[in-house]
Amino acid sequence: MSQIVSNQQLVQIANKFGTPVYVYHAERITEQYQKLQTAFSKCNAQFFYACKSLTNINILKHINNLGASLDCVSINEVKLGLMAGFEADNILFTPNCVDFEEILQAKDLGVKINIDNISILEQFGNTFGNNYPVCIRVNPHIMAGGNFKISTGHVDSKFGISIHQMRHIERVVKTTNLNVEGIHMHTGSEIKDVNVFLEGLEVMFTIASHFPNLKYIDLGSGFKVPYQPTDSETDLTSLGEKVAEAFSAFENETGKKIQVWFEPGKYLVSQAGYFVVKANVIKQTPATVFAGVNSGFNHLIRPMMYEAYHHIQNISNENATERIYTVVGNICETDTFAWDRKITEVREGDYLVFYNAGAYGFEMSSNFNSRLKPAEVMVENGEAKLIRQRDVFEDLLRNQVL
Ligand SMILES: *Cc1c(COP(=O)(O)O)cnc(C)c1O
Question: Are residues 233 and 297 in the same domain?
Fold first, then answer.
C-alpha cells in the first residue's frame, strides 16, 4: 500500500489552514525515491531531483536528506538547492538559452554544468579549457511522450545539441581542450515506453567513445506516473534491469565503468501532492452543471495548458450519489479543471481535492486576476505543518512603485 494522506486529514488541513491549499506528503516522496533505488539497484545510479517541479525549500531539504542529488534549470534553483543543504558537487545545472553570465555564476558556485548549445560550449572552452569539467546535453532525436508540448527530443526541439553535430562538438572540445565528464539527454515527460530510454542509451554509447574522460551518462527523466485511475506508470523495474544489462555489456566491451544518472521530477513529487479547493457556486445551465471553485488556472495550470487529467473527489460529501460536473475556476477567461466528471454530489462550501498535484502545480502558479497564491502544507509523521504562507494583499504590491 502506498503512503497517502487520508481525505479526513485533508479536510482537517483545509479547516485549519484555509483553501485553496497545496498539501505534500513527505513519506510518499521517500517511498518514490526508494522505488527508484530498488528498480536501479543493479546499476551504478544516481538520482538528481528535477526541482523545477516543486521548489519549496522544505521539500528540497527533505529530498536532500534522502540522499538524492539535484537538477536545476536556473541559477536561482541552484541557490535554493545550496540553501537547502545540497553539496555543490551534487547539483547539476542544466540551463537552456541563458546568458553566459549565468553559467559563470554557476561555475563560481562550484556546481556541475550541463551545456546545451555549441556557442556556449565554445565560450566555456575558450575561457576555462580543461580547468572545469562539463557535461554536454545532446538531442538524440527520439520522439517521446504523448504530448508535443512536453516533448523535447524531437527534431524541432530547442533543447540539446543535435546528435548530427557530433563532428562540430568534437572540434570545439579538441581545440579548446575541454574536459567532458558527462553526456546528457532528456527527451520529454510522461514517457511510458522504456524503449525510448534504451534507444537513447544506445545513442549515448555510440558517442561515448569520443570522450575519454567520461564518468556518467545522464538519461534525463520523463518517468510517467498514473494520473487517471486506469493509467499505468513507466515500468521502472524492467527499465532498471535493461539499463543494468546494457551498462555491463558496455563495460565488458570498453573496460569503462560509467555511472548512469536520472533526473526525476514528477516521479518523486506528483503523487505526494494534493490540492484542496472549496466549491463556491453550483451553477446549472441548460447544458451542464458547473461546480465553480475558489481557485483557477492561476493555481493549477496543467489542465488548461496540457489538457492534463487530475482526479477529483468531494471530500466533504464522500458517500453521496455521484453526479456529473464540469469543474471550473474563478478566473475571467475559460478556466476549466475537468469536463463531465463523476463526483459525489457537490454542495456549495464542500471541499474538493485534486490528486497528483505535487508536480508543476504550485510551481507554475501566478497572481493572474490579482488573486493570491495558495498556502503550502507538508505532512510528515502524520503532522501537518505550514511551509508557505498564503499570499496576502501586500504581496500584489510588492515591487510596484507607488
Ligand atoms: C523538466 C526536466 C526534468 C524532469 O521531468 P519530469 O517529467 O518532471 O520527470 C528532468 N530533466 C530536465 C533537464 C528537465 O528539464
Answer: no
Ligand 1 atom with least separation from CA of 266: 8
**Can 135 be counted among the known catalytic residues?**
no
Question: Which residue range(s) make up the domain with 141?
Answer: 40-269
CB of residue 94 inside a 6 A radius of ligand 1: yes
> What CATH number does residue 387 fall under?
2.40.37.10
> For ligand 1, is residue 48 a contact (CB within 6 Å)?
no
Rounded to whole angstroms, how far apart are CA atoms 190 and 320?
Answer: 34
Whether 300 is in a domain gets the answer yes
Structural domain includes residue 184: yes
Strands 161-162 and 180-184: unpaired
Q: Is the pLDDT of residue 369 over 90?
A: yes
* Domain final residue pick, 216, 244, 269: 269
pLDDT at 134 over 70: yes
User: For residue 190, what pLDDT is reported?
Assistant: 83
* Among 53, 147, 150, 236, residue to substitute to test ligand 1 (most atoms within 8 Å of Cβ): 53
Q: How far apart are CA 71 and CA 73, in angstroms?
A: 7
Identify whether 30 is part of a domain.
no
Among residues 2, 3, 1, 5, which one has the least CA distance to residue 385? 5
User: Which residue among 72, 97, 135, 332 is the active-site one?
Assistant: 332
Instruction: Give the number of the atom of ligand 1 that is nearest the alpha carbon of residue 184.
Output: 13
Question: Is 28 within the bounds of a domain?
Answer: no
Query: At 154, phi and psi to the nearest 5?
Result: -80, 175
Provide the whole-model pTM: 0.96
The SS3 of residue 294 is: coil
Quote the ligand 1 centre to 351 CA distance (angstroms). Answer: 31
Specify whether 100 is located in the same domain as 162.
Answer: yes
Ligand 1 close to Cβ of residue 221 (< 6 A): yes
Residue 189 clears pLDDT 90, i.e. is over it? no
